Amino acid sequence: MIEVIDVHKSFDDKEILKGITTSFEKGKTNLIIGQSGSGKTVLLKSLVGLHDVTSGDIRYNGKSFLTLDNASKKRLRQDIGMLFQGSALFDSITVEENVRFPLDMFTNWSEEERRERANFCINRVKLENANNKFPSEISGGMQKRVAIARAIALNPKYLFCDEPNSGLDPRTSIVIDELIHEITKEFDMTTIVNTHDMNSVMGIGEKIVFIYQGNKLWEGTKDDIFHVQNKELEDFIFASKLFKQIREQNS
After folding, report:
1. 5 neighbors 23 (Cβ within 8 angstroms)
2. Phi-psi category of 72—alpha, beta or left, where left has phi over 0 and alpha has psi -120 to 50?
3. From CA 195, how far away is CA 201, in angstroms rounded?
4. Which DSSP string do the residues of 218-244 spell out, in sequence order?
5. Are 31 and 200 in contact (CB under 8 A)?
6. pLDDT tens-digit readout, 119-150
7. Which of 164, 158, 167 is nearest to 146 (CA)?
8. Cβ partners under 8 Å of residue 39, min gap 6
9. Residues 6 or more apart from 85 whose CB is under 8 A from it?
10. Hey, where are the domains in the chain?
11. Cβ atoms within 10 Å, residue 251
12. Can you list the alpha helix ranges (DSSP code H) found in the chain?
């Protein structure tokens, strides 16, 4: 579990996060949702230590991340997998080499062990026979799956996904959502997904945190979300005609 306790974050004199308190549960797909500029990306980056918070605390399984020494932070970061918005693959190396990259960097495993682990992860995301292809030779959806394979290569306890469906068509987005949900359950990870995609919310949102102008205005499950009495969240959810129709069907 990851706990966020009264977290504030400012850049110069502008406060972006305004006292966020919530928790993200193990074995679940936890979603942070909100409009562009709401603060959800700043919160995600604060959770992994890319931003230092101004005040408050972030705890991993009860231990404060903010008070860990550098060696302890390094060990914790090896338990973290990260799926970046643009996949962030290395164009000049193959799929297998991309997935092997964290194994080469952070383990003392033998060549055979690293190859076996990379192949396991590649097969797990259903990219058999893609090992020797370069990122430019595969589709955007396949690139996302390579990025997921790389993110789970070190068998992380925590998986962070920043807009994983960005740039994907609706059908491929569902495939990526389902894959993230499956591996969360399979490896019992604490998964946090930063998204504004309502299809993701309704598909895999086991715990949802809604951020609005730097404040946490609501949290709950996808089953709760249609019964929310919150104007800002309603405006966000029902911005499309599709979800207005769903609300009417559930009312």
Report:
1. no
2. alpha
3. 8
4. EEE-TTTGGG---HHHHHHHTTSHHHH
5. yes
6. 999 999 988 889 999 999 999 889 999 999 99
7. 164
8. 9, 16, 17, 18, 20, 211, 213, 214
9. 162, 163, 164, 166
10. 2-79+160-250, 88-155
11. 7
12. 40-47, 70-77, 95-106, 111-124, 140-151, 170-187, 198-204, 231-237, 241-250
State the CATH class of domain 2-79+160-250: alpha beta
Q: What are phi and psi of 101, to 5 degrees?
A: -50, -50
Q: What pTM was computed for the model?
A: 0.86
Find the length of the chain. Answer: 251
Query: How far is 87 from 238, CA to CA, in rounded Å?
Result: 29
- Could you tell me the end-to-end alpha-carbon distance of the chain, in angstroms, rounded to an integer? 34
Burial class of residue 53 (count of CB atoms within 10 Å of its CB; 0-12, 13-18, 19+): buried
| Paired strand residues for 193 | 31, 161
pLDDT in tens, 170-195: 888 898 999 999 999 999 999 999 98
